[in-house]
Amino acid sequence: MVNLRNLDLNLLVTLDVLLAERNVTRAARRLSYSQPSVSVHLAKLRDIFGDPLLLPGPRGMQATARAEALRQPLREALESLERAVTPARPFNPAESEHTWRVAASDSSGSTILLPAMTAIRAAAPGTRLAVLDLVPSRLAKQAEQGEVDLAFHTVEDSPPGLRRRSLFTERYVLAGRVGHPRLRPQLTLAEFCELEHVMVSPDRGGFHGVTDDALAKAGLQRKVVLSVPHFLLMMSVLASTDLVAMLPSRLVRNTRTLQVIEPPVDVPGYEMVMLWHERSHRDPAHQWLREVIATPV
After folding, report:
1. DSSP string for residues in 272-296
2. What superfamily in CATH does domain 172-268 come from?
3. Which of 52, 80, 227, 274 is packed most tightly, with the most Cβ within 10 A?
4. Residues 177, 239: contact at Cβ < 8 Å?
5. CA distance 243 to 195
6. Please, which residues have CB within 8 angstroms of residue 152's CB and are 6 or more apart in sequence?
7. What is the mean pLDDT of residues 195-221?
8. Is the pLDDT of residue 221 over 80?
9. CA terminus-to-terminus distance, the chain
10. For residue 92, what are the CA distances in angstroms to 95, 143, 221?
11. Looking at domain 4-85, does it have CATH number 3.30.70.100?
């Protein structure tokens, strides 16, 4: 059994060329070695494999049965190694068939991925994009294991150890259906608290969020009558009822079924970041996707 830990890769390269040329002089010229150096390599190879490998013949050197058995597997192994260590070629989106996996909430999917889709499809029509539910508690492990290429999350709650790039800082606005009888500019704080609110629950089923924290500092409380798990459902509720909601401004900036006003309470916004693992940081395809997503439309 040959111990690979003690095997000089240069010897295998020499053997590969010798098996192709069947001539020490031609092999030395092709390898840019001296003829004695190639002879020394051959002697070491014979000792390692316990076989003469190449014997003098009437038309050059003749391979032994052991050498013939080595020839094709050795060539394939060296070709694989060459591909592995060759610098990555520039990414060509027009020819790519990549499949990317991105973790996003319905909100970040709508405000980040959706605007980028036209550019991605136009430049890389052969690629595919899988959007997965964002599970913050699993994100670091998913990125480390290659299950997720990119993720979008608030900077405050992002897991440590991941690369990040800031995309934007978001603020909250108050939204309700067009024609809502009580939704108007310069709404007072008391009127705001009397409205019936719907919210996306950060803890799934809760009725308290950042807006409630801001109101509590002033000794006030709003009426949250509905808690939903996703923004998509919230938008439908707003369009068809008299409920109102505090929403990220980007989520409603092009919505015709809702009217949007500035809220009478100062609710802290958040910074949205793009996250990825170090393992894919220098990958050309990954770099291209990150740049497309981060480029404002």
Report:
1. EEEEE-GGGTT-HHHHHHHHHHHS-
2. Periplasmic binding protein-like II (3.40.190.10)
3. 274
4. yes
5. 7
6. 102, 103, 104, 105, 108, 109, 112, 113, 134, 167, 272, 273, 274, 275
7. 91
8. yes
9. 60
10. 6, 24, 55
11. no
